Write the structure tokens for this entry.
Amino acid sequence: MDEAEPSVERIHILGFPAVEELDLVGPYECLNVWHQEAGGTPCQVVAVEPGSFRGAHGLRISPHMALADAPVPDLFIVPGGDGSRTASQSDVVLQRIRACLDAGGFVASVCTGVRIVHAARVLTGRTVSTHRLAHDEVRSWKDVQLSHKRVTRDGPIWTAAGVASGLDLALALIEALDGQDARAAVARYVEYPPQSL
């Protein structure tokens, strides 16, 4: 692990109704492959409510635990989708984002998950990526700059562009936390094409 990075012993991905499924499942797959293939940190899904919910395209997802029962993670991943508008109004979610950063951890968003991170008021002066259909929304935010990269890191906050870029985000996080060999092992397992890396 890079000596400059804090230890990551707990990774959570936020789940919520009408989440964009690939925003959640793509990073989840990569991070748990990292755990299985290269000894990385396992990843769990957390949600405000303990019961299952449906994603934007109908997939039923059951979280591992409710946010209220979950400890603060070292890496908190926030996916996007239509449900991000409602999730961005959840005090429990916004408090968890701030708590993760306050504890020295990372927060990462995929697609319009950046809307939720913005609602936590932690993006002032930062540069972020998001889905192309949300570019105008980000441009309207005071003191936040829009990046057109698939993955943007600004300090402890990582953001990714639309949907499939969650795979790029997860691989970039794995490389930052565990090096190029770990990233390559995961990319080989999921057969992610090298030209996308």
Summary: Helices lie at 21-38, 84-87, 91-102, 114-119, 135-139, 165-178, 180-190.
